[in-house]
Amino acid sequence: MGYVSAVPVPQTRAARTAVPGGGRRSLAAALLLGAAGAAVVLLSAGQIWAEGTAAVGGGTLPVEADGGAVTGVPTALAIVGLAALFAVFAVRRAGRTLVSALLTLSGAGAALAAVLGASDRAALNAEAARISGDTGAAVTGLTHTVWPYVAAAGAVLILLAGLLALRFGKAWPAMGGRYERSGAPRARKAATTDPDRPEDLWKALDRGEDPTGAA
């Protein structure tokens, strides 16, 4: 009669590292996408989004509005998303899921606001009124640049980072040095006491230990 060995069969190296490796790749991708997306949105907000002309004193003057004048929503949400991206590593379990959802929503909201800003004319009308001194002044020859869509593309990168965090965030490491990669507390190294050194004996007494080693 044969016996079945109770010794577990060792897993291959590929099987042991598949999940951690995928976690590292998704972590690197999320950090890259989120940081790059926020940088693109913030850069785009400082560029000219809309241009036109305003009638002033029988003539016309060119007017323009940058992204910040058109809408401040993409900039604000990009900053929120960037903060959420790094906050993911400071929380665990349900908190990490909530922060990842905030990151995702920040990207989605920034993209939507940028696309809506691509057809906005209120900022240019306000600039025309300021230049002409006529509150009823309106811009003619209104055109929009490509920058609102560049901002929307950057916001989509933030959105993708949030989706990665929602999907793979549970496998990512958290801040703090008290835990190993497995999440278990690190074992404290036992202090050694040299009975021939008085300072070690005093330190042992301070720790509440028996410096003689007696049971």
Question: What attributes does this structure have?
Answer:
single chain, 215 residues, mainly alpha, three-stranded antiparallel sheet, 10% strand, disordered N terminus
Give your account of this protein's structure.
This protein has 215 residues and is mainly alpha-helical. It has seven helices and three strands, in the order H-E-E-H-H-H-H-E-H-H. The chain has a three-stranded antiparallel sheet. A hairpin with a 2-residue loop joins strand 1 and strand 2. Helix 1 packs antiparallel against helix 3 and helix 1 packs antiparallel against helix 6.
**What is the average of the pLDDT values?**
79
Computed Rg: 30 Å
End-to-end Cα distance: 49 Å
How much of the polypeptide forms β-strand, as a percent range? Answer: 5-15%
Total number of beta strands: 3
Largest sheet: 3 strands, antiparallel
| Share of helix, binned | 55-70%
Structural class: mainly alpha
Low-confidence stretches: 2-19, 177-183
Give the spatial strand order of the biggest sheet: 2-1-3
Inertia-based shape:
elongated
Number of helices: 7
**N to C succession of SSEs:** HEEHHHHEHH
How would you briefly describe this protein structure?
It is built from seven helices and three strands; from the N terminus they run αββααααβαα.
Write the layout of secondary structure elements.
Blueprint: H1 13-45, E1 48-56, E2 59-66, H2 67-70, H3 73-87, H4 93-117, H5 122-132, E3 140-144, H6 147-168, H7 198-206
Antiparallel strand pairs: 1-2, 1-3
Helix pairs in contact: 1-3, 1-6, 3-4, 3-6, 4-6
